[in-house]
Design a protein that fits this description.
With about 220 residues, this protein is mostly helical. About 65% of the residues lie in helices and about 0% in strands.
Length: about 220
């Protein structure tokens, strides 16, 4: 099938659910970690961008859709980093209770891999639309195991048209937050390596906060 005719059948709802979940996690944070902003503000900001994102996608305005996606990802990333900084400050000043620390750290840890999964999904191979223009995924910032399979093996396994979807990037981001490495998916691009270092560092800080607080309690 010629390039430009093939279209990806990747469902977009996992990425939408991830963004809604991120907004919900931010809403569960104490107001002190949201720079004084109302709890409903993150949800409103996400919804305000998800609606035009879906409209531009269905209308085929992929350039604007990609730009809005970058804006949305940037907003939730900035909120994640700011909330983490405020959490560290509160812990160092002993202004947070153990239960509040546990709840906040868990929310930020989950938000961390959801946010970066959204970045990987949005950026790899030019984004979901660009990846959908080719039959099968053969080039990108990450070397997924399916990309290394022999063509005959891929055809026998029914993976000849395989391309990564949001769940693949979610699995990659989850591994990075837990093992601090991409495990079975080597990283090829420099921008991806930088993002993964930032994600692993955020995860390490959150886990260090929990470990340090646990030692103090014991």
């Amino acid at each position: 099938m010629p390039i430009g005719i093939y279209r990806s059948t990747e469902p977009r709802w996992p990425a939408i659910i991830a963004m809604v979940a991120i907004a919900g996690l931010y809403a569960a944070l104490p107001s002190t970690l949201l720079v004084g902003a109302p709890r409903w503000l993150p949800g409103v900001a996400v919804a305000a961008l998800l609606i035009p994102l879906e409209i531009t996608h269905h209308r085929g305005n992929h350039a604007l859709n990609q730009s809005l996606g970058y804006v949305l990802n940037s907003i939730v990333t900035a909120a994640l980093i700011v909330s983490l900084v405020f959490l560290v400050l509160e812990v160092t000043h002993h202004e947070v209770s153990p239960s509040e620390l546990l709840r906040s750290a868990a929310a930020l840890w989950i938000a961390n891999f959801l946010v970066f999964a959204s970045w990987y999904w949005r950026l790899d191979g030019g984004g979901p639309h660009q990846r959908g223009l080719t039959r099968g995924h053969t080039d990108g910032a990450f070397l997924f195991p399916q990309m290394t399979m022999h063509p005959e093996a891929k055809m026998a396994a029914g993976e000849i048209e395989w391309e990564p979807n949001f769940v693949d990037y979610l699995f990659l981001a989850f591994n990075t937050s837990t093992a601090f490495s991409p495990t079975d998916v080597p990283v090829l691009s420099r921008w991806a390596k930088i993002l993964m270092m930032i994600q692993a560092m955020i995860s390490l800080v959150v886990i260090a906060l929990l470990a340090g607080r646990a030692v103090n309690i014991l």
